Amino acid sequence: MQVRLITEQRPPRQREAEAAPAGWNTLLDGTSNTNLVAVSCFGEAKPQAVCHALQLDKSTLSRDGERMRAQGWLVTRPGEDGRTSLLRLTSNGRQVLRNAIPAWQQAQHQATALLARERLRR
Predict the structure, then answer these.
(1) Distance between CA atoms of 121 and 48, rounded to whole angstroms?
(2) CATH classification of 2-117, choosing from 3.50.30.20, 1.10.10.10, 3.40.50.360, 3.20.20.70?
(3) Domain range annotation of the chain
(4) Secondary structure of the chain in the HEC alphabet?
(5) What pLDDT band is residue 117 in, cutting at 50, 70 and 90?
(6) Using CB atoms within 10 A of its CB, is residue 47 exposed (0-12), middle (13-18) or buried (19+)?
(7) pLDDT of amino acid 89
(8) pLDDT, position 27
(9) What is the pLDDT of residue 53?
(10) What dihedral angle (degrees, nearest 10) is formed by the CA atoms of 43, 64, 98, 16?
């Protein structure tokens, strides 16, 4: 996903500084933030669907999902057949996303400017 690639090219400390005012836990990396957005887009999703959409390894989503559950941003419930699970954002998770939008937009503008400067150098 282009969004993920652009936001994760910035240094981790820069991402953390931009994310802190929005309420993101700075222990979560860009992938975790992207996971939260993806689950929000799905509404309710099987972990496999999120992994497929974001081209993530199952273990990455599992690890990040645990962190998001610990923050109260994500819940898991059993799927229809009992063998699968479904991920869904909590109201707290949705609020974190709403609060993060201005910081995300600013980060996108900065990343776009950085990429444009890089293109001009070539």
Answers:
(1) 40
(2) 1.10.10.10
(3) 2-117
(4) CHHHHHHHCCCHHHHHHHHHHHCCCCCCCHHHHHHHHHHHHHCEECHHHHHHHHCCCHHHHHHHHHHHHHCCCEEEEECCCCCCEEEEECHHHHHHHHHHHHHHHHHHHHHHHHHHHHHHHC
(5) confident
(6) buried
(7) 96
(8) 39
(9) 94
(10) -160
- Specify which residues 89 forms β-bridges with: 74
Q: Average pLDDT, whole number, for the chain? A: 80
Contact 94, 2 (CB under 8 A): no
Residue 101 confidence (pLDDT): 79
Q: Give yes or no for residue 5 having a pLDDT over 60.
A: no
